[in-house]
Amino acid sequence: MNKNILKKLTDKIIYGIIYQKQKNKGEMNMENLVIGIEGLVGAGKTSICRQLLQKIPNTILLNGGNLYRAIVCAMLENKNKINLDLKKIDIKQMMDLFKIELKIEDNETKIYVDGKLAQEEELQAKDASLAVSYVGGQAKNEALFEFSRNLINDLKKEHNVIISGRSIMEIYPNTDYHFFITASLEERVKRKCIQYKGEVDEQEVRKNIIKRDELQEKAGFYKLHNNTIQVDVTNCKTIEESTEIVLKQIKLPSINY
Q1: Residue 242 maps to which CATH number?
Q2: Are 59 and 109 contacting, i.e. CB atoms less than 8 angstroms apart?
Q3: How far is the C-alpha of 67 from the C-alpha of 63, rounded, in Å?
Q4: Residue 152 covered by a domain
Q5: In a domain, 239, yes or no
């Protein structure tokens, strides 16, 4: 194993053990953190969240974006069974109707639809992404937001919580750190083409991102708040480099070995 990788792994294990011991003894006067990650389409939000999950001990990743995608995908698959007047659709009711559940596995939320694990590639597919952008700005989200708020409060009792999604400050106004990840259009197109493994034409990817940007902007999903920290990752060569920029902004407990 590479020495640098081994050192990082060892440091994380030691940090996590001491963190939990000091917390159990009441030696750390710090509540668990809630960290929200939003950003432009294709800027790398989810990848950064997963890297942070590896770097911050005692943490759960709540992938709100995948939850919403699973609900919208279920709606599309069952469009003959529901009223597709989006302004009348309650997203939480759709979640319950299609038996969509969140489960914590390996410190990350996994989405189950009628007992079956939803696959990441299906949730992140181009057509699903565009549909989510349409639905998100028109449907009734209030009940789902309340559900999410209660879930975050429950998770925060025992863990730090990283949230990947949209409208995070509306869902959870007491978010400790709110990041908005940006990158140039060219960089985002390149990253999406890599994600789609070359199976989608570059021009189609570009049009899709531009359209989704318009829909997200119109829906208010690109809103910045007083506490929002903008992070431009255009020039970052790796996801690790992007993550380090975010991590440097987060005040973690100081622990003496």
Answers
A1: 3.40.50.300
A2: no
A3: 7
A4: yes
A5: yes
**pLDDT tens readout for residues 186-222:** 999 999 999 888 888 999 999 999 999 999 999 899 9
What is the number of domains present in the chain? 1
* pLDDT tens digits for range 8-27: 454 455 445 545 555 555 54
Q: By three-state DSSP, how is residue 207 classified?
A: helix
Residue pair 192/20 in contact by the 8 Å Cβ criterion: no
Which pTM does this prediction carry? 0.84
- Domain limits for position 46: 32-247
10 Å Cβ neighbour count for 189? 20
Region label for 197, one of left (φ > 0), alpha (ψ between -120 and 50) or beta (otherwise): left
φ, ψ of residue 208 to 5 degrees: the values are -65, -45
Closest to 216 (Cα-Cα) out of 135, 98, 97: 135
Q: How far is CA 245 from CA 52, 165, 180, 250, in A?
A: 11, 19, 12, 10
Q: Is residue 14 part of a domain?
A: no
The C-alpha atoms of residue 62 and residue 64 are separated, in whole angstroms, by 6
Return the pLDDT at 29: 44
Produce one character per residue of 91-113: b if its CB has 16 or more CB atoms within 10 Å, e if not: bbebbeebebbbeeeeebbebeb
Of 239, 179, 188, nearest to 213 by C-alpha is 188
CB 53 within 8 Å of CB 47: no
Determine the pLDDT at residue 256. Answer: 42
Within a domain: 27? no
